[in-house]
Amino acid sequence: MSDARRPAPRGTHRALIKKELREVVRDGRFWVIAFAVAGLLVVALAFGFRQSHAVHTERSHAQAGADDHWREQGEKNPHVAAHYGTYVFKPASALSFVDPGVEPYLGASVKLEAHRRNDLEAGRAQDATGLTRFGGLSVAAVLQLLIPLLTIGLGFGAWTAERERGTLRQLASLGLAPRVLAIGKGFGIAAALAALLVPAIALGALAVAIGNEHGAAVSGGRPLAMALAYVAYFVVFVALTLAVSARASSSRGALITLLGFWVFAALIVPRAASDAAAVLAPVPSSRDIADAVKSGVATGLPAGPDREARVATLTEELLETQGFKGAEMLMDAALLSAIELRAEAMFENEVIDHHHERLADAIARRERLAQAAALLSPVVAIRSLSMAFAGTDYAHHRHFADGAEGHRRALVEMLNKEMGDKGGSDAWSFQAGRDLWERAPPFVHRQPSLHWVARNNWLSLASLLGWLGLASLAAWLFARRIRVV
User: Fold this and answer.
1) Residue 6 CB coordination number (10 Å)
2) Is residue 459 a contact partner of residue 223, using CB atoms and an 8 Å limit?
3) pTM metric for this prediction
4) b/e string for 431-460 if b means 16 or more Cβ within 10 A?
5) What rounded mean pLDDT belongs to the chain?
């Protein structure tokens, strides 16, 4: 079918879109599938929002209780209070109702105490039954898996059915260029999907607004970025469906090809990528890291000085920084004890950072390998981007954990300094009270910027845009070369 060079008459595109939409609406299969998908989408939205709101309320109350407990702990030595510690809880993202990501499988709270960096604990999946884990349903799962199936069901016969009915010959005889027909068919399928998705988007926007009112704030631009990513993902499947339909010799062949691609992209590639990444990029267990930290704190870092030598060096540096070097005999005992405690904390932090960075680097390598599968599957790309924009991927979990660790160090530093400044001759007998506990800096966690998200997920973003460009180009080229008979 040759591509006519004269422009399409005014209103042609609108008429073709109406024609395609009318054919879709008249197809009883569309209504059955659409109602099923819409029902699952509404159920996922309702349960996801309810769960997200419950998690936010639970963590907010738990954080308030932990803060009250810290302020009301009674009088004690500041360093003893550092050992007593406190808890911080990860804030729930306002978009977690769309995509819970890996949040249910990671911890939600962490104890902050002297000399230790604790792992987050109390993940929701730990309290879930096996049936709950098997039957989990999310808005993201519906959008990522079922909407492409609906798109395939709507468009697999877009070109082949026209040829089989003989209407493609009639359209060609009217002088309509293939590009005009392709645009009409693409927008016809998109209009049918929009009729299903726009109400869901409106409900989602309302849920985000309600979440913001209740304190589960979301960084500006994330909902829009997530929506644009999903739009690009849906366009990929619309374009692929049209491309395969234009290339296939029959509707049955187009359907089999598209379903085969869906199985490959949605089921095979993600699982294979996950298993391959686990083999190619092994990650040390939490117990291994904890044992390494414990050993390092006792003896020192590998290929470095031992504990006593490193603590002595750090103590000398602190004394020199504060102008006390060479005058240790004249110093107040409490101040000297506080400086020694600070030096010990600095050494322990060096050991903690060394081993936790090793863990973080191993996990990052595994994440990059898994994301590389987005080159083979747009489903992998949208999964990574969806979790990232929702703030429920591992990178956001690590961002919170690092923030909590920074807060722990600031808190311990403040308490040790208070003991040194006010402890007098017997620092360990010094007792602090509520006024000190209330002066402890509050823990405030904010989601990182969209630029941070894009930098951490550049491969998934580039892959999705690549799929969009290639699928659109294929739909365009195959439409121009389509056979009328």
Assistant:
1) 7
2) no
3) 0.85
4) ebeeebbeebeebeeebbebeebeebbebb
5) 83
Contacts of 344 (CB under 8 A, 6+ apart): 115, 311
- Say whether 29 sits in a helix, a strand or coil: helix
Answer for the pair 191, 18: CB distance below 8 angstroms, yes or no: no
Q: How many other CB atoms are found less than 10 A from the CB of residue 261?
A: 17
What does the chain come to in residues?
A: 485
pLDDT in tens, 27-86: 666 777 778 888 888 888 888 888 888 888 888 899 999 999 999 998 998 888 988 889
Rounded CA separation 176/15 (Å): 12
CA 26 to each of CA 39, 76, 430: distance values in angstroms, whole numbers, following the listed order: 20, 76, 82
The four Cα atoms 259, 25, 229, 203 give a dihedral, to 10 degrees, of -130
* Biggest alpha carbon–alpha carbon distance for the chain: 103
Is the pLDDT confidence value at 4 over 50? no
DSSP 8-class letter at 462 = H
Matching residue, tokens 């020192």: 300
Amino acid letter, 63: Q
The SS3 of residue 111 is strand
Determine the 3-state secondary structure of 87 from DSSP.
Answer: strand
List own/partner pairs for 329-335 with CB under 8 A and 24 or more apart: 332/423, 332/424, 332/425, 333/423, 333/425, 333/426, 333/427, 334/419, 334/420, 334/421, 334/422, 334/423, 334/424, 334/425, 334/426, 334/427, 334/430, 335/420, 335/421, 335/423
Place of tokens 């999964």: 383
| DSSP E strand boundaries for 153-242 | none
Amino acid in the structure at residue 204: G
| Tokens of residue 210, six digits | 């309600």
Helix, strand, or coil (residue 76): strand
- C-beta separation of 66 from 89 below 8 A: yes
